[in-house]
Write a structure and sequence with these properties.
Blueprint (H helix, E strand, L loop, with lengths): L5 H5 L8 H7 L2 E3 L1 H6 L7 E3 H7 L5 H4 L4 H4 L1
Antiparallel strand pairs: 1-2
Length: 72
């Protein structure tokens, strides 16, 4: 065991789930282009739940002049 190698300390992963898989499955929603407009220089994704909240313009949110683009 090499004490400086984290993989040898933890062993092999039991299961992996990549960002690409989560995007393909719909678990994540890619908002990178919108984030770039706001100055982000990294890939940005939201969970499906957060995306749903951002898109919920019902009730007081719609009357407050909010938009999906503005909320992101």
């Amino acid at each position: 065991m090499n004490e400086h190698d984290p993989a040898s300390f933890r062993g092999e992963p039991i299961h992996t789930y990549t960002r690409a898989e989560a995007l393909a499955d719909g678990v994540l929603v890619d908002v990178t282009e919108t984030a770039r407009e706001a100055g982000f220089r990294v890939l940005v994704a939201l969970t499906r739940g957060i995306w749903a909240d951002a898109n919920d313009l019902s009730g007081r949110h719609a009357y407050a002049g909010q938009s999906v683009q503005g909320r992101l």
